[in-house]
Each structure stands twice: as structure tokens, then as C-alpha cells.
Description:
Elements: H1 3-20, H2 36-43, H3 48-52, E1 58-69, E2 73-79, E3 84-90, H4 91-94, H5 96-102, E4 110-119, E5 125-136, H6 152-157, H7 159-165, H8 167-189, E6 193-194, E7 200-201, E8 213-216, E9 221-225, H9 230-238, E10 243-251, E11 263-272, H10 276-295, E12 299-302, E13 305-308, E14 314-317, H11 318-324, H12 336-345, H13 356-367, E15 376-379, E16 401-406, E17 409-416, H14 421-435, H15 447-455, E18 460-466, H16 467-475, H17 499-507
Parallel strand pairs: 3-5, 6-10, 14-15
Antiparallel strand pairs: 1-2, 1-4, 2-3, 4-5, 7-9, 8-9, 10-11, 11-18, 12-13, 15-16, 16-17, 17-18
Helix pairs in contact: 7-8, 8-10, 9-15, 11-13, 12-13, 14-15
Amino acid sequence: xxxxxxxxxxxxxxxxxxxxxxxxxxxxxxxxxxxxxxxxxxxxxxxxxxxxxxxxxxxxxxxxxxxxxxxxxxxxxxxxxxxxxxxxxxxxxxxxxxxxxxxxxxxxxxxxxxxxxxxxxxxxxxxxxxxxxxxxxxxxxxxxxxxxxxxxxxxxxxxxxxxxxxxxxxxxxxxxxxxxxxxxxxxxxxxxxxxxxxxxxxxxxxxxxxxxxxxxxxxxxxxxxxxxxxxxxxxxxxxxxxxxxxxxxxxxxxxxxxxxxxxxxxxxxxxxxxxxxxxxxxxxxxxxxxxxxxxxxxxxxxxxxxxxxxxxxxxxxxxxxxxxxxxxxxxxxxxxxxxxxxxxxxxxxxxxxxxxxxxxxxxxxxxxxxxxxxxxxxxxxxxxxxxxxxxxxxxxxxxxxxxxxxxxxxxxxxxxxxxxxxxxxxxxxxxxxxxxxxxxxxxxxxxxxxxxxxxxxxxxxxxxxxxxxxxxxxxxxxxxxxxxxxxxxxxxxxxxxxxxxxxxxxxx
Length: 508
């Protein structure tokens, strides 16, 4: 029998003995207790003499994280949502019957304790237990031998265990919640209405990505999990809601990496009578405020780099960035043959002749993006890679668009919206023609969206911000998996069903 199996057996035996003694392993009459952090905050500065004057008894509940027994007494640390506090349990104080039950408790059990405060010889604030009670019996031990979980695969797969053992992980997710609250606070205080739009679409739209496909039985209809809510949000602009935002889940059936998860969180917002330049200012304000709320400073550290989020930020056109940062000679930028050779030299060959903008964006990804550590707006993207953005009034070969890069990765994408239905239909048709015979993305045009534009959409600008990447930046997290509670992973052996097995079952 393995060591783990032996421990599980021993714990189950203890549980059976407790039940034989009339102890309920999973009671449900526990009233909300006091939090460890609240007790520490109020009484953390009291010395022993001051604590002796406190007549109040405190009741806390939490998981046993450490336990040291000394015959007729024990010290233990319990952890609740707010933090930890030490408990002292003495047989002569709680009584022989309670202490007999307490001796069957294990690290990992959740208990309730009531008693008065005192300080130990090492000056640690401690509760002297008058009463101790089992709240939840833990049949499986904590991974105490690791002193927290170091194996990332286990951490991501068993996030509940990770949160118990690694306080810094729990703190990252508390900060994620604070960031999302800050996003909502900023937009609602600036007159934006939070809305919800469909997550299942009959037409793939709003961005270029491979979708996940599902099927609606009652309608007999294939649907796509949304890759972006953009076209629905702009329909709301047509409907008269001039400022809207949505914190939304998007799904893209593409690769998994430290920056990509197939299911991710985006913030999209749209503002009538604004331009992409107005959104640059908004974005600077928003990020600076989030940094101040979280860190008290607009200068932060990310993976060893010092990043200054103080507005204003650097602005470069895509063409300027390729020349100044990427080192591509300016005279080469309009020569497709030379651009193709350069991509081939970078182990990124292309097939056939591409629109000029696609050469530029491919080179940008390779030569420029990794070098943009400080916040930088890249503007004036070519029209052929911006199917939903308004053409620039002075140069129709580029659009009024920006992408924001920080720490060598894209954080946001925004543009002045295209609201001419004729131009939009032509762009959709060109996009479909260039898509080819890709069966995963059926070549369809969202004619209802074109019809909405024909009703008249006010001039507007819109932006999408990758919330997970923003949280990574503000919490100094190296991987997107560190800021998503349950990231997508390959199934463990025996988990899930492979595509081949599903097909085989369907044949039968």
C-alpha cells in the first residue's frame, strides 16, 4: 500500500471513530465567525497586560495548517479567508471529552474555536480555546511536505490545493477581483452602461479567429461560441445607447501558451462621438488609476522590468515602429518581394502574395512587439488588416486605429468605428473572399449588422482590453495560467474523451 493510501485509510478510520462517539463530521449549523485578520487588526498591538483586561470571547473557524502536540496540550494555526491565527488547546481547559475528540483532528480539517486572547512566551497573539469543534473532516492530507505546491502542473490542475497552500496565489486572485471592480468603477462613473450580449452566435464575427462550434438541438442549428462581442455592442450604439461596456468571456479555438487561453476575459467599450485618439487618453487614465489603486504608484515592476504607466505614453505609427524599432529599411516596406525574403530569413516564410498590411504585421510581431516594454500606442494600421476600422481621412490606405503594447505584448486594440454601411459591406465581402475555403470559419457576412448601420450609427470609437493580460501586468504574473482560476489543460489519463473516441462512439 502506498504512503498516500495508508494516510487516507488512517483518516477514514479516525472519521469512523469520531462518528461512533457521536461527532458530526460535516455539521451545518455554524454561524458566521469572526475573521482572523479583524482580530489581529484590533488586538495586534495589545500586550499581555492589556489582553487580560479584554473580557470578550472570540469565535473563529478555519482550516488547520499546522499542528504541534505536547501530550496534554497543543498549538495549532488555523487559516480562514482573511489570514491566520494561533490556537492553544489544553486538555484541562477544554475538558477530557473535548480533548479526546480533538486528538483525532488532522492538519487540513476545518474547525471552530472559541476562547479568549493571550500572548505566548514568543509574544504571538493566540486564542486560548474554551471550546473546539469539528466543522469539516478532511479525508485527504495537505501537501505539507512541499511547503506549498511548487509543481506548476499540479497547481493549475488542483487550484483549490494551490490556494490553500500558497498565500501569494490567493493574493493574486484577490487583486484580480480588485482590478475588475476598478474597471467597472471607472466606466460606470464615466457614464457607461454595463450590458450583456449573446455568447452563442450564428455567424462568426467581430474578430478574426477560429471559433468553437456547438449545436442547438431544438433549432437544429450549429452555433459558435463568441470570439468577440463587438458587432452586438455596436448595434446598441445604433439603438441609442451612446456609452456601453461589457466584461465578457470570449472563446478562440487556437493555441495555448503563457499568453493565450482558449477561454479568456475581455473588456470591450464603445463611445459615441469619440475617436481613437480620445480612447488613448481614456486608456492612459484607466491604467494609471488601476495601478494607483493597487500599488499606490503609477510605476510598477513586471518580471524584472520597471514600467512607468504615468501618462502620456509613447505613440508610433506601425510604419515608424518597423523602421525605428524593428530596423527594417523604409524603402523596403513597400516591396513585397523583399518583405517576403526578410520573413523567410526569420524562419517565417509566407505562401503566395499577401496584402501589404499582412507583411507589416507579421514583421511587427517578430521584430517590434517583444521590444515594446514601456507602454506604447502603435497607430495607423493598414486598411487590409483592419476590416472594422474607419479609414483615415487624409490617407485611406491606413485606418484610425491603435494597439497598445506593454511588456512586449498586446494589451488593447481600438479604433474609430466604421459606420458607413457601404464601406462596411465591401470590407466584409473582401474579408470573405480572402478567407478561402476554411471549413472552420464559414464565409458568411453579417447582413443584419450592415442593416443596423443602414439605420445610422453615430460616429464612435471602441476598444477591447485583454483583462487577463492586464491582470498579469499589474500582479507581476509571468503566465496567463497564473491569473485564471482554472486554465485549460490537457486531460489527465482517463479524463475526458478524445476526438477519436467520440467519432468511434458516433459510428456505433
